Amino acid sequence: MTDVGHIQVTPKAAEKINSLRSEAKLDDSYFIRVSVKGGGCSGLSYNLDFDNELKQGDQEFLNDGIKVICDLKSFLYLAGTELDYSDGLNGKGFNFINPNASRTCGCGESFAV
């Protein structure tokens, strides 16, 4: 169940994030920065990256041992979103399960509200 006031990370996504951080030889000071930018098939696209610098207005969430940071503007689009990871045959990669999206593109990387 998704909490509308947070960005959630599933255990599978947390496992993959920790694996990627280790492969990149990043220490625990690095967190996941989730943001939204204009573009993509549906108008807005997700951005996910490692960062270690907080900015004014950042929203911070900690779950499953993963620190997720999101700027306030992006959080308006991402509140209640769940970050999952799939390694199955029907698609591999991170998935954003966003209750605010009115439609998403076929690739799952962009959305509209």
Helix content bin: 10-25%
User: What can be said about the biggest beta sheet?
Assistant: 6 strands, mixed
What is the architecture at the second tier of CATH? Sandwich
Top-tier CATH class: Mainly Beta
Task: Tell me what portion of residues adopts beta-strand conformation.
Answer: 35-45%
Describe the structure.
- The chain has 113 residues and is of the alpha+beta class.
- The chain has a single domain, classed as Hypothetical Protein Aq_1857, Chain: A (Sandwich), CATH 2.60.300.
- 18% of the residues lie in helices and 42% in strands.
- It has helices spanning 11-23, 72-78, and strands at residues 8-9, 31-38, 44-51, 59-63, 66-70, 82-88, 91-97, 103-104, 110-112.
- The strands form 2 sheets. It has a 6-stranded mixed sheet with strand order 4-5-2-3-9-8.
- A hairpin with a 5-residue loop joins strand 8 and strand 9.
- The longest helix has 13 residues, at 11-23.
- It starts with 7 loop residues before the first strand and ends with a strand.
- The model has no long low-confidence stretch (mean pLDDT 84).
